Amino acid sequence: MFLLKMRNILSMSVIELVENNIIFGPVISRRFGTSLGIDLSPAQKQCNFDCLYCELAPALTVNTQEKSLHVSSIIQALKKSLQEHSNIDVITITANGEPTLYPYLDALIDAIKALKLEIKLLILTNSATLNDTKTYQTLLKFDQVKLSLDAISEDIFKKIDRPHKEIQIEDIIYHVKQFSQEFQGELFIEILFVAGLNDTKKEIARLNEVLLHVRANRIDIGTIDRPPAYPVEALSYEQLMDISLMFVPSLPIHIASRKKINTKASRYCAEEIVNTLDKRPLSEDDIEILFDANTKKTLQKLLHQNKILKIDRSGVIFYILEENLHRKLKKSVKVIDNK
Ligand code: SF4
Known about the structure:
Layout: H1 2-20, E1 23-29, E2 33-39, H2 71-84, E3 90-94, H3 105-114, E4 120-125, H4 133-139, E5 144-148, H5 154-161, H6 169-182, E6 186-193, H7 201-211, E7 218-223, H8 237-245, E8 253-255, H9 270-279, E9 282-283, H10 284-290, H11 293-304, E10 308-313, E11 316-321, H12 324-327, E12 334-336
Parallel strand pairs: 2-3, 3-4, 4-5, 5-6, 6-7, 7-8
Antiparallel strand pairs: 1-2, 9-11, 10-11, 10-12
Bound molecules: iron/sulfur cluster (SF4).
C-alpha cells in the first residue's frame, strides 16, 4: 500500500515535471520575433534521425513516438504560459527529436487555432515525414514551416542525418519540392553544413539544382553552433560565406550562423560593393561583419541613389542591387524604406 502510494506520488511528480517542461521561452529571435516554444517530447529524445550534429545525446531512431503528451495537457500549459507572457509573435512547435512524430499533431494544431490567438504558428521539422499524407496536410495548416535539407546525395545524407532505416533522401526531395509549391505560408529551408561532409563543391552543386525547384522565402545556411552528439567539426563564417557564393544568386540564401568570425571588416569601393551584391544579396549582419565604417558610408550613398535597395525576407533585411530586384529574385519581396 505504502509502495503504491509512493509510486502514485512519484508518477504524479514526474507528470508535473514533464508538463512544466512542455512550454519554453519566450525566446527573442531577430528572424521570428518573440517566440514561445512547445516541446512535443519533453521527457526523452524521440527522433527518426540521429544527426551527427544534434545537440541532444545520440539515440536510436524511431518512426513513431513511444511516449506522447495529451493534447489537453499541452493546451493547458500553453494557456498558462500565455497568461504570463504577452506580446508573443510566434508559437514554435518543436521537440526533443522530430515534432511530426507526435501522433496528435493535427488535433493539437486545430486546438491551438481554436484559441483564436493572433499569433503565428511555426514548426521546425527534418522533412522526413512529408511523405505521410496526414502529416503533409497538417503542415499545410501552419503559418510558417522550416524544413531541413542537409544533403542531396544518399550517402552524404545517411552519414550526416543517420535516418531511420526506411527513410530515403529521394523521397524527401520529392515532397519538399511538392510542399513548397502548395504551401501558402512562409517556407524556410535550413541546411546545416558539417566540415568534410556536405561542404564539397559537388554536393553544393546538387543542393543548388534541387533548391531551384523549391519555392522558399529564405534558405538559412549554418553550421554546428553547440556541442554535437558526435565528434564533427563546424565550418567558419568565412567558409559559409564562400559556400553562399556558390549558390545561384536568385536563391534567397542567408547565413544564419556566426560561428568563428575571424574576418576583419574591409574597405570596398562603390564598384566592389556593387560587384559583391551582384553575386549575392547581403544581410544586415553580413554588412556588419564585412564592411568597415567607410564602406558603410559608401553603401548609404548607393542607397540614397537607389542603386541599392533594402528588402525584407521574412524578418531578415537584405541589401540588393536595384537592377537585380526583378531580374534575379524568383519570389516577390517587400522593399523597405532605404533611408
Ligand atoms: S533531426 Fe533534429 S532532433 Fe533529430 S537527430 Fe537531427 S538534430 Fe537531433
